[in-house]
Amino acid sequence: MLCRIAGLSICLAAGFLLSILSCALYGNWWPLLVVFTYALAPLPNAIFGRYVTSDPLADVSSSVADFGRFMTAVLVVSGFGLPVVLSHAGIITSMAMYMSIIGGVLVYGTIIVYSTLFREQQDF
User: Fold this and answer.
1) What's the rounded Cα separation, in Å, for the pair 25 and 60?
2) Of 4, 13, 41, 67, most Cβ neighbours within 10 A?
3) pLDDT tens-digit map of 64-107
4) Which pTM was predicted?
């Protein structure tokens, strides 16, 4: 268990390091906007996740929970798309874009792996 937590923390730190280095090495701090999407991406699921039904046989879909999933998807896609748009506009260099995207993959991957490893087991 401790090795999993240590590995996840190293991946998370490497992701943030790449995002910050993409700003610092190339003298342009616009890629730092992506870090805000890292922090905001899990919030809609955390806020609207309590509206999901716990009954696996229920055929009812909560529109509030679906809206939370949609907002999470918007933030994740904008976290990957923002460096591409900034690079295409010539605001940041292509290496800064690559570093920012790789950092985003590491951060979002860490969030996904953490949520799957430490999900509560439901007993029926």
Assistant:
1) 50
2) 41
3) 888 888 999 999 999 999 999 999 999 999 999 999 999 999 99
4) 0.82
